[in-house]
Design a protein that fits this description.
The protein is α+β, with helices and mostly antiparallel strands. It has nine helices and ten strands. The strands form three sheets. Strands 1-2-6-5-4-3 form a six-stranded mixed β-sheet. A two-stranded antiparallel ribbon has the order 7-10. A two-stranded antiparallel sheet has the order 8-9. Strand 5 and strand 6 form a beta hairpin. The mean pLDDT is 88.
Length: 328
């Protein structure tokens, strides 16, 4: 329900962390541990790749002594750890105890020193987790990150079964004109640049493939028609590549002339953002979450008496709730 759908990193920096620092109560025991151990954090934030930024992670630790736990982005395909290095461990999550093959190494990204923990799946895939928390065990790191599944399942279930994202009403309120947002014109240029770069990558792939198919001519034979056609095609592809690179350069120069962010008041009146009225949305969300909790409690009560409870307990509870009842 953020005002203008800000990015996760922006919400963390400007909204979530300031609120947590404001309400966080530091116990004497915690304070003592922080004094005795310079690696002991104030607290740890766990989130997905949307909030990924090693520079920001470094800043969080230096300014507030807050550590992070998240997935690593942009892991290269060739960056694979030896499977023999992984060790099978028991990990306790909110979904129960499970066995995972884990391994840990130190890594530095953008001058930020972090621990990297990877999980090896049965199909050979390696899931990379990074953290700036230096005191958590490797098992606790895996539990903390993969334990988020229960949160994701919760929101997925509420969207599907309780229409959690449904707009309750279409009444709108104005947004403060001083609120800054990403300039839509800037975003349009960024999108165009992205598409052109994708086109460039495809043409370069075509060129690479074409160069591999060079005709094998006899040494004594002069330039053949086949070789001439091959060279002509290569020149055409290279010309296409040069044209696309020129277009990208023009788009980049035009984007430099446009501010990345502008205030709501600077936006054209017809395109100016507004926000949906939130009061009824909050109220309905609270009602839906109370209903979900009631459903969960009923499912827990019935689980021990239902053989297929692992897969079907929610279906059973929904069927019971939907039964007509005479309240007279």
């Amino acid at each position: 329900t953020s005002t203008v759908n800000e990015k996760m990193l922006e919400m963390l920096e400007k909204e979530i962390i300031p609120q947590l620092l404001k309400i966080h109560t530091l116990t004497e025991e915690h304070q003592k541990k922080m004094e005795e151990n310079p690696d002991y954090p104030l607290f740890t934030l766990a989130f997905d790749r949307e909030g990924y930024s090693p520079v920001f992670f470094n800043q969080l630790w230096k300014e507030h002594r807050i550590s992070v736990l998240t997935y690593r982005k942009n892991v290269k395909e060739e960056d694979v750890w030896e499977e023999t290095e992984f060790e099978e461990m028991e990990v306790e999550t909110r979904l129960g105890t499970t066995k995972m093959k884990l391994q840990e190494k130190e890594t530095v990204i953008s001058d930020c020193s972090m621990r990297e923990v990877r999980r090896l799946s049965a199909d050979g895939h390696q899931t990379s987790i990074i953290t700036t928390n230096k005191i958590l065990t490797i098992v606790a790191i895996a539990a903390g990150m993969f334990g988020r599944w229960i949160q994701e399942n919760f929101f997925r279930y509420l969207r599907q079964e309780y229409s959690f994202d449904r707009i309750i009403q279409y009444t709108v309120d104005e947004i403060d004109n001083d609120v800054t947002v990403v300039n839509r014109e800037y975003s349009n240029f960024t999108y165009s640049i992205k598409k052109k770069r994708e086109q460039l990558s495809r043409r370069k792939a075509v060129l690479y493939d074409h160069q591999l198919k060079i005709p094998q001519e006899e040494k004594t034979e002069p330039m053949s028609k086949k070789m001439g056609a091959w060279m002509t095609k290569q020149l055409e592809i290279k010309e296409d590549i040069q044209n696309i690179e020129d277009e990208i350069e023009k788009l980049l120069k035009k984007r430099q002339e446009i501010p990345y962010k502008i205030s709501i008041g600077q936006m054209p009146l017809n395109d100016r953002y507004v926000k949906l009225h939130q009061e009824s949305k909050y109220f309905m969300n609270i009602v839906k979450m109370i209903c979900y909790r009631a459903e969960t409690e009923l499912a827990n009560l019935l689980a021990n008496n239902y053989i297929r409870s692992d897969n079907e307990i929610r279906t059973l509870v929904k069927a019971i709730i939907k039964q007509p009842v005479d309240l007279n």
